[in-house]
Amino acid sequence: MPASAAYEPAGTSYVRRRRSRFTVRQWAVRHSRFLETLYRLFAGALLRLHPVWKAIGYGRVEKPMVPIERGLKSFMFDCRMCGQCILSSTGMACPMNCPKGLRNGPCGGVRADGHCEIEPEMPCVWVEAWKGSRTMVRGDLINVVQEPVDHSLRGTSSWLRVTSQAAAEREAADKP
Q1: Nearest Cα to Cα of residue 17 among 132, 165, 119
Q2: To the nearest whole number, what is the mean pLDDT of the chain?
Q3: Residue 21: its pLDDT value, please?
Q4: Is 8 inside any structural domain?
Q5: Burial of residue 87, with CB atoms counted within 10 A of its CB: 0-12 exposed, 13-18 middle, 19 or more buried
Q6: Which of 4-8, 21-25, 28-32, 102-106 has the lowest average pLDDT?
Q7: Fewest Cβ atoms nearer than 10 Å: which of 28, 48, 58, 89?
Q8: Residues 156-176: what's their mean pLDDT?
Q9: CA 126, 132, 134: angle at the middle one, nearest 5?
């Protein structure tokens, strides 16, 4: 068996695991402004449905919503379903695709060609995020420091979480 030039954790090779998905991820970054607009419209629709979600119960709605969200976001962004999606502030590049799991910018190991130090064939997620954020209307959100990932939310719907939080904020603002 030939020796690999670089350390490669079992089953995580960029070539095998990500090449086909990376093509779609690159498209998403290149079209981040369009996707940002689409997301705002979708988020608005989910928020208008808040009374329905609340009546049914967010816990019940989450069960069928998670597979839909996982399927769509997995295809488009190679989503890891962290439950705390920040695509709208990272140029439509999912930071959870960073082999180091960095959530607030690139590590010190970004190669001169903009590729990852861990997976040299893969462009750095944060270099891509910066490119995507520069075309977005609210692209400066990439500069907002994110809180650490709450791993207890893994596998849950960030769409429903954002909707319930936005509805709660709206209701709080409407109270005198």
Answers
A1: 119
A2: 87
A3: 66
A4: no
A5: buried
A6: 4-8
A7: 48
A8: 90
A9: 105
Distance CA 110, CA 171 (A): 44
Q: Does residue 74 lie in a domain region?
A: yes
The answer to whether residue 142 sits within a structural domain is: yes
Count of domains in the chain? 1
Which burial class, exposed, middle or buried, applies to 144 when counting CB atoms under 10 A from its CB (0-12, 13-18, 19+)?
Answer: exposed
Say how far apart CA 131 and CA 134 lie, in whole Å: 5
Can you point out the beta strands (E) in 115-163?
A: none
The one-letter amino acid at 103: R
Residue closest to 157 by CA, chosen among 34, 71, 88, 49: 71
Q: At 139, list the tokens.
A: 């692209």
Distance between CA 24 and CA 2 in Å, rounded? 31
> In terms of residue numbers, what domain contains 40?
18-174
Reference 129, options 27, 29, 28; nearest CA is 29
Residues in a beta bridge with 123 = 115
- For the stretch 96-150, pLDDT in tens is 999 998 999 999 889 999 999 998 888 999 999 999 999 999 999 999 999 999 9
Is 13 within a domain? no
pLDDT of 4:
44
Answering whether pTM is above 0.85, one says no
